[in-house]
Amino acid sequence: MSAPTTPEAVVDLLGLVAYGELLAFDRMAADARLAPDLRRRAALSEMAAAEIGNYRRLSDWLTALGATPDDVMAPYVEPLQAYHDSTEPKDWLEAVTKAYVGDAITDDFLGEIADRLDEPYRRLVRDVLHESRYADFAAAEIRAAIETDPRVANRLSMWARRLVGEALSQAGRVAAADRGALTALIARDGTDVQATFRRLTAKHTARMAAVGLNN
């Protein structure tokens, strides 16, 4: 039976997820301005509001644990910001593809780590990550665009491949970082990080096929 999760590991992971939620809010608010109509702009703005709600929930937990949210999020600013800076969408379809592909593989990675936490922290992180409205919305937008113009699939497939490469690269940076408690949590119970990445890639392949994109 595994040893209980250390408080340091809990704080480190909650800090990572909290910064991801804060960054997601920033990005969705910006992506909403790329929307082709007010209906889509409003939908994305509502989802951005949900992300800031998730951030506040995690921030409150961190505070209750005696941590300062700004301090525990700080080590993750560079790798996560680097991913978003290198994958800035040029238009609406690139934005929703990034949401569908990039966000999903990041959430899968964080979910695998969260499964090594004790309750109630495992449930907290899973609840935050399992918000599916944005992914469902993005998938519907991609399918509709391909139905209207099948040539779109090739462009978005190339974009998705770039996204997954960048996402896995940054996930690797997080996994390899010397964060002590978080590093131990990632490698808990002899976890094979490369095997984890293979599982993430397999899920990505299934997601691509589900919306008509090519791997």
Protein model, in words:
- The chain is mainly α and 215 residues long.
- Helix content is 76%, strand content 0%.
- It is built from ten helices and no strands.
- This is tRNA-(MS[2]IO[6]A)-hydroxylase MiaE-like protein.
- It comes from Micromonospora palomenae.
- It holds the Pfam family MiaE_2.
Features:
single chain; 215 residues; mainly alpha; Ferritin; 10 helices; 0% strand; globular
Describe the protein's topology.
Blueprint: H1 7-31, H2 38-64, H3 69-73, H4 77-86, H5 92-114, H6 121-129, H7 133-148, H8 152-176, H9 181-186, H10 193-210
Helix pairs in contact: 1-2, 4-8, 5-6, 5-7, 5-8, 5-10, 8-10
Domain Ferritin-like: 8-188
Organism: Micromonospora palomenae
Protein name: tRNA-(MS[2]IO[6]A)-hydroxylase MiaE-like protein
| Tally of DSSP β-strands | 0
CATH class: Mainly Alpha
Largest sheet: none
Total domains, how many?
1
In CATH terms, what is the architecture?
A: Up-down Bundle
Number of helices: 10
Helix content range = over 70%
Label the overall shape.
globular
Mean pLDDT equals 87
Q: N- to C-terminal separation?
A: 39 Å
Structural class of the secondary structure composition? mainly alpha
Radius of gyration using CA atoms only: 17 Å
At the fourth level of CATH, the homologous superfamily is Ferritin, core subunit, four-helix bundle
What is the chain-wise order of helices and strands? HHHHHHHHHH
Low-confidence stretches: none
Q: Roughly what fraction of the amino acids lie in strands?
A: under 5%
CATH topology: Ferritin
